[in-house]
Amino acid sequence: TPSKLLIVLTFGAAGGAFLAISDDSPFRSLTAGESGNDGGKKKKLVVLGTGWGGTTFLKNLKTSAYDVHVVSPHNYFTFTPLLPSVTNGTVEARSIVEPIRNIVRNKPYNVEFKEAECYRIDPVNKKVYCRSIQNLGHGENEFALDYDVLVIAMGARVNTFNTPGVEEHAHFLKEVDDAQKLRRSIIDCYERASLPTISDEEKKRIMHFVVVGGGPTGVEYAAELHDFASQDLASLYPSLKDYLKITLLEAGNHILPMFHKKVTDFANEKFQKDQIDVKTGSMVVKVSDKDISTKNRATGQIEAIPYGVVLWSTGIATRPVIAEFMEKIGQAGKRVMATDEWLKVQGCDDVYALGDCASIDVGDFKEFVKDIYERYPQVRKYLEKNKLKNFESLLRNAQGDSQKKIDIEALKKALSEVDSQVSFLPPTAQVASQQGKYLAACFNKAGRCEMKPEGPFRFQESGGRYPFHPFSYKHSGQFAPLGGEQAAVQFPGDWVSIGHASQGLWYTVYASKLVTWRTKVLVVSDWFRRFTFGRDSSHL
Ligand code: FAD
What integer is the mean pLDDT of 344-350? Predict the structure, then answer.
């Protein structure tokens, strides 16, 4: 996914220690009235979004200093890593969501939730404008909320690259609704293709499932679909077995570009065995109701491929409401909303942003890295001591993503100059949740810190300007489920494990990461149900 240009040195855990607050601290405004008695009135904190960033922030906020107002078009949190499993009924939709009101129940702060979408942010008058998703009568649909402090955690939208026909004809996989629609469409195809009126050629078209995008979501979906088809549907629809075709289209040179080459190779081999047709160098130029047109990047040849269902999974882009807000605060030229390293939105007071909707901007990267290296020998020592070996895969990641117009040579040069390790901050749940935790810790501590002008070591020379530690991301690895109870896992340092044991680890990690005991129990029992009875193919 796109435009996260940010590069962060990984020399500490997320969050970490905090010192004190000086006048120009990014959290200065949080301290006034921190006791909740700012002239008898608590500060009004508005949180936009209940995804990974917003929910982790709310879960970890432990101060009563605010009246909290949460706005989101979904009154629940979605555990997105299990969305591909919902598309084939391995887990049920309700097992991976948790009502936000459950999550914020019994918190020390007052909280109100509004099921609505924010369509405008006015940083001058400190207001957010919202619209209910209920389609109420005229005058009842829209409302405005004032804020003292705003936290934007609205995620991102699907990036269609303005490809004609994608919005109208392709499926997405961002929300629970998308996963449910996809599940219904798969069964639709099987039932339609079973009708006696359908010609052979039409059957072939209907039974062709196309996935666009060879990133982790596209690959996982293709693998899940293959498992569903071969393990459950093949015996229920024996006459359609030979018509089934799954194609994965990827514009770049290989699938899973952010993973180690071993993982990419294994995935390619596995998909070949499973007869999933992987077409790299294929750029989709148009989608109609029955055909998907691709351009071969090497030959320039255009081919129209008939399909039954197409999933579009090519990354994310900025939401229109954020783009409009960026214009207002002087960030019009940027591809993603920029915050400083304390997650405070640049060019705007009292507004913080986290997760997929924002990116930390450290200015000139080369200068940043050089600066760190020159000023802080202890950082250099840390980096040298903990030498990570994932530089190559980081570069592959950057190269594989056409949206990240990173000057690889400049990056290499900068890195060799400073002899340090870097990591890109990817748009993942891991990043969003660590940021949510970090920001909540800052809010919790803001009022309790004593003045300590020297601040953390990094800023001592500049007069202790920012006494809170900046956000620092700690990468704990990434999974790529590849179907057939096999997965690949890549830990920091490019330590890779592939196979059935990794799939076991995947089950353990994801069960443990589910946000409540209710969802843990539901998901684990779904897995048992699936192992015992298979997946449900009812056309609901
Ligand atoms: P989101 O989680 O997308 O939350 C955005 C929130 O904003 C939502 O509640 C939404 O309803 C709300 N919102 C939207 N519009 C508005 C509006 N106008 N006003 C108010 N609120 C609004 N990451 C991993 O680390 N590991 C994985 O295995 C993984 N698997 C994934 C699988 C899939 C299928 C997908 C789609 C993503 C996956 N990710 C994974 C990525 C991860 O889900 C995102 O990076 C993460 O959700 C980003 O968190 P966020 O809070 O920024 O945004």
Answer: 89
The conformational region for residue 259 under phi > 0 = left, psi -120 to 50 = alpha, else beta, is: beta
| Distance in Å, CA 444 to ligand 1 centroid | 24
Calpha distance 20→236 (Å, rounded): 65
Segment 165-185, tens digit of pLDDT: 999 999 999 999 999 999 999
How many other C-beta atoms lie within 10 A of the C-beta of residue 375? 16
Instruction: Give the chain's radius of gyration (CA, Å).
Output: 24
Q: What is the ipTM of this complex?
A: 0.99
Q: Is the CB of 50 under 6 A from ligand 1?
A: yes
To the question of pTM greater than 0.90 for the whole model, the response is no
Alpha helices in 194-288 (DSSP H): 200-206, 216-228, 234-236, 261-273
Report whether pLDDT(127) > 70: yes
The boundaries of every CATH 3.50.50.100 domain in the chain are 7-157+317-460, 166-314+476-533
Closest atom, ligand 1, to C-alpha of 117: 19
The more confident residue out of 120 and 444 is 120
The topology under which CATH files domain 166-314+476-533 is: FAD/NAD(P)-binding domain (3.50.50)
pLDDT at 86 exceeding the cut of 80 = yes
> How do beta strands 66-72 and 43-48 pair?
parallel
Mean pLDDT value across residues 248-254 = 94
Q: 3-62: per-residue pLDDT in tens? A: 333 333 333 333 333 433 444 556 655 654 444 444 557 899 999 999 999 999 999 999
Beta bridge partners of 279: 249
State if residue 359 touches ligand 1 by the CB under 6 angstroms criterion: no
User: 7-157+317-460, what's its fold?
Assistant: FAD/NAD(P)-binding domain (3.50.50)
Structure tokens at 94: 């309700």
524 φ, ψ (degrees, to nearest 5): -65, -40
CA dist 49 and 73 (Å) reads 8
**85 versus 379: which is more confidently predicted?**
85
Which residue minimizes the CA distance to atom 10 of ligand 1?
49
CA-to-CA separations, 24 to 16, 21, 30, 331, 468, in angstroms, rounded? 20, 8, 12, 21, 11
Q: Is the CB of 433 under 6 A from ligand 1?
A: no
Most ligand 1 atoms within 8 A of CB, residue of 48, 52, 97, 173 to mutate? 52
Burial 114-124 (b: 16+ CB within 10 A, else e): bbbbbeebebe
Q: Is the CB of 173 under 6 A from ligand 1?
A: yes
